[in-house]
Amino acid sequence: METPMDTVFERVVPGKHGLAVEMRPGQHLRVVDLEGRQVVDMALFNRDNLREKLSTSYSRTRYRPRQLGDYIPRDRIHVGDTLMSTLCRPMMTFVDETAPEKGVHDCHNRMCNRFLYEVQLGMAPQDGCHEIISRAVAPWGLLPEDIPDTFDINMRYEHDCTRHRWVIGLPASRAGDHVEFRAEMPLLVALSVCPLESGDCNGGKSTPVRVEILQAA
After folding, report:
1. Distance between CA atoms of residues 54 and 84, nearest Å
2. CB count, 10 Å around CB of 128?
3. Which residues have a Cβ under 8 Å from the Cβ of 1 and sit 6 or more positions away?
4. Are 212 and 30 a contacting pair, CB within 8 Å?
5. CA-to-CA distance for 201 and 169, rounded, in angstroms?
6. Burial of 72 per CB tally in 10 Å (0-12, 13-18, 19+)
7. Mean pLDDT throughout 90-108?
8. Angle at 207 between CA 203 and CA 212, to 5 degrees
9. Predicted pLDDT at 71
10. What is the mean pLDDT of residues 139-150?
């Protein structure tokens, strides 16, 4: 039987914008893709020790809880998996997703940033997810160099073994699909609605998402 949950925070975050929120252990974070195919970069910090933060490498090469000996580095994070910290401690547990294809999220790629857009892609000056998240967490005294590599919700980032390269594809999320995580420690959560509007990453357009924090009623 599912525990009834109350919504204690709700905000629609426009495309190309970000948000930072604090969470208590046991609260749930739900990110709803309002129009579909939208990537959201997520950075995590221990609210009581901001130097401890998300480690995507530990998250993708972890043991599954209570399955001794199950050390199998996998290319996807699924419901039941944990996002781990730089001290290899659980920060969040992945508890739900509604997209038809499961596990289409990235923990290998870097964040987009001004350097990527201007120097590598030859685009006009534009803030990327790194700058957006940096602004969101600045009130907590965090600097741009404090931002860890992010967990990229809905990002299809797959390895092409034939071409020896990573390939960005269309996300699997549809309008109204959501992902949900449970906080395992006091958290500062920072989110960026990815601003890229070329290629497949966001289906070619940066669109809004709804961010909710839920807790047991």
Report:
1. 6
2. 23
3. none
4. yes
5. 6
6. exposed
7. 96
8. 120
9. 67
10. 98
